[in-house]
Amino acid sequence: MANKTENQKAWLFVLPVVLLVAFNALIPLMTVVNYSVQETFGDNVFFWEGVKWFEQVLNSERFHAALLRQFAFTGTILAIEIPLGIAIALTMPRKGPWVPVCLVLMALPLLIPWNVVGAMWNIFALPETGLLGKVINGMGIDYNFTQQPVAAWLTTVLMDVWHWTSLVVLLAYAGLCAIPDAYYQAAKIDGAGGWAVFRYIQLPKLKRVLTIAVLLRFMDSFMIYTEPFVLTGGGPGNTTTFLSIDLVKVALGQFDLGPAAAMSLIYFLIVLLVCWVFYTLMMRNEEA
Question: What is the CATH number of the domain that holds 174?
Protein backbone atom coordinates (compact mmCIF):
# COMPACT_ATOMS: atom_id res chain seq x y z
CA MET A 1 0.00 0.00 0.00
CA ALA A 2 1.47 3.35 -1.05
CA ASN A 3 2.26 5.87 1.62
CA LYS A 4 -0.05 8.87 1.64
CA THR A 5 1.52 12.31 1.50
CA GLU A 6 -0.09 14.80 3.86
CA ASN A 7 -0.91 18.19 2.40
CA GLN A 8 0.03 20.97 4.83
CA LYS A 9 -1.07 23.83 2.57
CA ALA A 10 -4.22 24.33 4.64
CA TRP A 11 -2.04 25.96 7.32
CA LEU A 12 -1.47 28.85 4.90
CA PHE A 13 -5.13 29.84 5.34
CA VAL A 14 -4.84 29.75 9.13
CA LEU A 15 -1.46 31.48 9.31
CA PRO A 16 -2.75 35.09 8.92
CA VAL A 17 -5.20 34.60 11.78
CA VAL A 18 -2.53 33.01 13.96
CA LEU A 19 -0.13 35.89 13.28
CA LEU A 20 -2.80 38.50 13.99
CA VAL A 21 -3.80 36.88 17.28
CA ALA A 22 -0.18 36.44 18.28
CA PHE A 23 0.54 40.10 17.50
CA ASN A 24 -2.48 41.32 19.48
CA ALA A 25 -1.49 39.14 22.41
CA LEU A 26 2.26 39.71 22.45
CA ILE A 27 2.23 43.52 22.40
CA PRO A 28 0.15 43.91 25.60
CA LEU A 29 2.04 41.04 27.22
CA MET A 30 5.42 42.61 26.56
CA THR A 31 4.14 45.92 27.94
CA VAL A 32 3.08 44.19 31.14
CA VAL A 33 6.44 42.40 31.38
CA ASN A 34 8.19 45.75 30.91
CA TYR A 35 6.27 47.37 33.77
CA SER A 36 6.73 44.34 36.05
CA VAL A 37 10.51 44.80 36.24
CA GLN A 38 10.65 48.61 36.32
CA GLU A 39 9.42 51.60 38.27
CA THR A 40 8.19 54.87 36.83
CA PHE A 41 7.26 58.22 38.34
CA GLY A 42 5.88 59.64 35.11
CA ASP A 43 7.36 61.55 32.18
CA ASN A 44 8.15 58.18 30.57
CA VAL A 45 11.18 57.74 32.87
CA PHE A 46 11.78 54.16 34.07
CA PHE A 47 14.06 52.67 36.72
CA TRP A 48 15.11 49.01 36.75
CA GLU A 49 13.73 47.06 39.74
CA GLY A 50 14.29 43.44 38.74
CA VAL A 51 12.06 40.97 40.59
CA LYS A 52 11.25 43.36 43.42
CA TRP A 53 7.56 43.64 42.50
CA PHE A 54 7.16 39.87 42.18
CA GLU A 55 8.62 39.35 45.65
CA GLN A 56 6.37 42.08 47.03
CA VAL A 57 3.25 40.53 45.54
CA LEU A 58 4.09 36.95 46.55
CA ASN A 59 4.80 38.05 50.14
CA SER A 60 1.70 40.23 50.36
CA GLU A 61 -1.09 39.10 52.72
CA ARG A 62 -3.50 41.08 50.58
CA PHE A 63 -2.61 38.99 47.54
CA HIS A 64 -2.89 35.75 49.52
CA ALA A 65 -6.33 36.71 50.83
CA ALA A 66 -7.61 37.66 47.36
CA LEU A 67 -6.19 34.45 45.88
CA LEU A 68 -7.85 32.38 48.62
CA ARG A 69 -11.20 34.06 47.99
CA GLN A 70 -10.76 33.40 44.27
CA PHE A 71 -10.08 29.68 44.76
CA ALA A 72 -12.97 29.39 47.23
CA PHE A 73 -15.35 31.05 44.77
CA THR A 74 -14.17 28.94 41.82
CA GLY A 75 -14.38 25.72 43.85
CA THR A 76 -17.90 26.57 44.98
CA ILE A 77 -18.97 27.40 41.44
CA LEU A 78 -17.62 24.16 39.99
CA ALA A 79 -19.13 22.07 42.80
CA ILE A 80 -22.57 23.53 42.04
CA GLU A 81 -22.69 24.14 38.31
CA ILE A 82 -21.21 20.88 37.00
CA PRO A 83 -23.62 18.49 38.83
CA LEU A 84 -26.54 20.88 38.33
CA GLY A 85 -25.81 21.24 34.61
CA ILE A 86 -25.64 17.46 34.15
CA ALA A 87 -28.89 16.99 36.08
CA ILE A 88 -30.73 19.55 33.96
CA ALA A 89 -29.33 18.10 30.73
CA LEU A 90 -30.58 14.63 31.73
CA THR A 91 -34.13 15.95 32.11
CA MET A 92 -34.23 17.73 28.74
CA PRO A 93 -36.05 15.95 25.87
CA ARG A 94 -33.99 14.41 23.07
CA LYS A 95 -36.76 14.56 20.46
CA GLY A 96 -39.94 16.49 19.84
CA PRO A 97 -41.08 20.12 19.58
CA TRP A 98 -39.83 20.99 23.08
CA VAL A 99 -36.17 20.49 22.13
CA PRO A 100 -35.66 23.91 20.47
CA VAL A 101 -37.67 25.58 23.22
CA CYS A 102 -35.44 24.12 25.92
CA LEU A 103 -32.27 24.94 24.02
CA VAL A 104 -33.32 28.57 23.50
CA LEU A 105 -34.27 28.95 27.17
CA MET A 106 -30.91 27.51 28.22
CA ALA A 107 -29.03 29.83 25.87
CA LEU A 108 -30.79 33.03 26.96
CA PRO A 109 -28.66 33.73 30.09
CA LEU A 110 -25.48 33.31 28.03
CA LEU A 111 -26.59 36.06 25.63
CA ILE A 112 -26.83 38.72 28.33
CA PRO A 113 -23.74 40.96 28.66
CA TRP A 114 -21.80 40.55 31.88
CA ASN A 115 -22.31 44.12 33.10
CA VAL A 116 -26.05 43.80 32.49
CA VAL A 117 -26.12 40.58 34.55
CA GLY A 118 -24.48 42.38 37.47
CA ALA A 119 -26.88 45.31 37.19
CA MET A 120 -29.91 43.00 36.95
CA TRP A 121 -28.95 41.08 40.06
CA ASN A 122 -28.08 44.28 41.91
CA ILE A 123 -31.63 45.52 41.36
CA PHE A 124 -33.13 42.06 41.89
CA ALA A 125 -31.40 41.51 45.26
CA LEU A 126 -31.82 44.94 46.84
CA PRO A 127 -33.22 44.32 50.34
CA GLU A 128 -35.93 47.00 50.23
CA THR A 129 -36.99 47.19 46.59
CA GLY A 130 -35.66 44.06 44.89
CA LEU A 131 -37.89 41.02 44.40
CA LEU A 132 -35.35 38.58 45.84
CA GLY A 133 -34.55 40.83 48.79
CA LYS A 134 -38.23 41.44 49.57
CA VAL A 135 -39.06 37.74 49.41
CA ILE A 136 -36.17 36.67 51.65
CA ASN A 137 -36.79 39.42 54.19
CA GLY A 138 -40.52 38.65 54.02
CA MET A 139 -39.72 35.10 55.16
CA GLY A 140 -38.22 36.51 58.35
CA ILE A 141 -34.60 36.16 57.23
CA ASP A 142 -32.42 39.23 57.65
CA TYR A 143 -30.91 39.72 54.19
CA ASN A 144 -28.87 42.66 52.93
CA PHE A 145 -26.08 41.85 50.51
CA THR A 146 -24.79 45.44 50.66
CA GLN A 147 -23.89 45.10 54.36
CA GLN A 148 -23.67 41.40 55.19
CA PRO A 149 -20.58 39.50 53.97
CA VAL A 150 -22.29 36.09 53.87
CA ALA A 151 -25.28 37.49 51.97
CA ALA A 152 -22.96 39.21 49.48
CA TRP A 153 -21.00 36.00 48.93
CA LEU A 154 -24.10 33.86 48.46
CA THR A 155 -25.69 36.40 46.13
CA THR A 156 -22.56 36.48 43.96
CA VAL A 157 -22.49 32.68 43.80
CA LEU A 158 -26.21 32.53 42.96
CA MET A 159 -25.75 35.12 40.22
CA ASP A 160 -22.93 33.15 38.62
CA VAL A 161 -24.89 29.89 38.86
CA TRP A 162 -27.84 31.51 37.12
CA HIS A 163 -25.65 33.00 34.42
CA TRP A 164 -23.30 30.13 33.57
CA THR A 165 -24.97 26.83 34.44
CA SER A 166 -26.56 26.97 30.99
CA LEU A 167 -23.13 26.52 29.42
CA VAL A 168 -22.63 23.24 31.27
CA VAL A 169 -26.17 22.18 30.38
CA LEU A 170 -25.67 22.77 26.66
CA LEU A 171 -22.31 20.96 26.61
CA ALA A 172 -23.66 18.00 28.60
CA TYR A 173 -26.78 17.86 26.45
CA ALA A 174 -24.67 17.74 23.28
CA GLY A 175 -22.65 14.90 24.79
CA LEU A 176 -25.77 12.96 25.74
CA CYS A 177 -27.26 13.35 22.27
CA ALA A 178 -24.07 11.95 20.75
CA ILE A 179 -24.43 8.61 22.60
CA PRO A 180 -25.71 5.95 20.16
CA ASP A 181 -29.09 4.36 20.92
CA ALA A 182 -27.45 0.93 20.79
CA TYR A 183 -25.98 1.51 24.25
CA TYR A 184 -29.41 2.21 25.74
CA GLN A 185 -30.93 -0.78 23.98
CA ALA A 186 -28.24 -3.07 25.35
CA ALA A 187 -28.76 -1.65 28.84
CA LYS A 188 -32.51 -2.22 28.54
CA ILE A 189 -31.95 -5.84 27.53
CA ASP A 190 -29.65 -6.33 30.52
CA GLY A 191 -32.27 -4.82 32.82
CA ALA A 192 -30.10 -1.90 33.91
CA GLY A 193 -31.78 0.82 35.96
CA GLY A 194 -31.50 4.55 35.54
CA TRP A 195 -28.53 4.92 37.89
CA ALA A 196 -26.66 2.07 36.20
CA VAL A 197 -27.22 3.65 32.78
CA PHE A 198 -25.89 6.96 34.05
CA ARG A 199 -22.94 5.41 35.89
CA TYR A 200 -21.72 3.03 33.19
CA ILE A 201 -22.92 4.61 29.93
CA GLN A 202 -23.70 8.30 30.13
CA LEU A 203 -21.05 9.50 32.56
CA PRO A 204 -18.11 7.76 30.82
CA LYS A 205 -19.27 9.11 27.46
CA LEU A 206 -19.46 12.62 28.94
CA LYS A 207 -15.87 12.67 30.20
CA ARG A 208 -14.44 14.68 27.34
CA VAL A 209 -17.36 17.09 27.28
CA LEU A 210 -17.18 17.59 31.04
CA THR A 211 -13.43 18.19 30.78
CA ILE A 212 -14.13 21.08 28.43
CA ALA A 213 -16.95 22.33 30.67
CA VAL A 214 -14.77 22.29 33.80
CA LEU A 215 -11.88 24.00 32.03
CA LEU A 216 -14.12 26.73 30.63
CA ARG A 217 -15.88 27.32 33.92
CA PHE A 218 -12.64 27.30 35.85
CA MET A 219 -11.08 29.93 33.61
CA ASP A 220 -14.22 32.09 33.50
CA SER A 221 -14.90 31.95 37.24
CA PHE A 222 -11.24 32.39 38.18
CA MET A 223 -11.00 35.52 36.04
CA ILE A 224 -14.44 36.89 36.92
CA TYR A 225 -14.57 40.65 37.29
CA THR A 226 -17.53 42.50 35.77
CA GLU A 227 -20.45 40.74 37.46
CA PRO A 228 -19.25 40.94 41.11
CA PHE A 229 -17.85 44.44 40.56
CA VAL A 230 -21.20 45.73 39.34
CA LEU A 231 -23.12 43.76 41.98
CA THR A 232 -21.09 44.49 45.13
CA GLY A 233 -18.04 46.53 44.09
CA GLY A 234 -15.92 43.97 45.93
CA GLY A 235 -17.66 44.57 49.25
CA PRO A 236 -18.86 44.67 51.87
CA GLY A 237 -15.31 45.08 53.08
CA ASN A 238 -13.25 42.71 50.97
CA THR A 239 -15.74 39.84 50.97
CA THR A 240 -16.11 39.69 47.18
CA THR A 241 -12.80 41.35 46.28
CA PHE A 242 -11.52 38.59 44.06
CA LEU A 243 -8.08 38.59 42.50
CA SER A 244 -9.23 40.37 39.34
CA ILE A 245 -10.94 43.15 41.30
CA ASP A 246 -7.93 43.56 43.58
CA LEU A 247 -5.68 43.75 40.52
CA VAL A 248 -7.74 46.59 39.03
CA LYS A 249 -7.66 48.43 42.36
CA VAL A 250 -3.88 48.22 42.47
CA ALA A 251 -3.44 49.21 38.81
CA LEU A 252 -6.06 51.96 38.44
CA GLY A 253 -7.05 52.87 41.99
CA GLN A 254 -3.55 53.14 43.42
CA PHE A 255 -1.77 53.47 40.06
CA ASP A 256 0.98 51.11 41.19
CA LEU A 257 1.88 49.88 37.73
CA GLY A 258 4.87 47.75 38.77
CA PRO A 259 3.07 45.64 41.42
CA ALA A 260 -0.03 45.48 39.21
CA ALA A 261 1.98 44.18 36.26
CA ALA A 262 3.73 41.59 38.43
CA MET A 263 0.38 40.52 39.92
CA SER A 264 -1.18 40.17 36.47
CA LEU A 265 1.67 37.93 35.28
CA ILE A 266 1.41 35.78 38.41
CA TYR A 267 -2.36 35.65 37.88
CA PHE A 268 -1.86 34.54 34.28
CA LEU A 269 0.67 31.85 35.25
CA ILE A 270 -1.63 30.46 37.96
CA VAL A 271 -4.52 30.10 35.50
CA LEU A 272 -2.24 28.55 32.88
CA LEU A 273 -0.64 26.13 35.33
CA VAL A 274 -3.89 24.94 36.91
CA CYS A 275 -5.52 24.44 33.50
CA TRP A 276 -2.52 22.51 32.23
CA VAL A 277 -2.35 20.26 35.31
CA PHE A 278 -6.07 19.59 35.25
CA TYR A 279 -6.16 18.86 31.53
CA THR A 280 -3.13 16.55 31.79
CA LEU A 281 -4.70 14.57 34.62
CA MET A 282 -8.03 14.27 32.84
CA MET A 283 -6.43 13.11 29.61
CA ARG A 284 -4.30 10.60 31.52
CA ASN A 285 -7.42 9.14 33.13
CA GLU A 286 -9.08 9.06 29.72
CA GLU A 287 -6.26 7.00 28.24
CA ALA A 288 -6.03 4.67 31.23
Answer: 1.10.3720.10
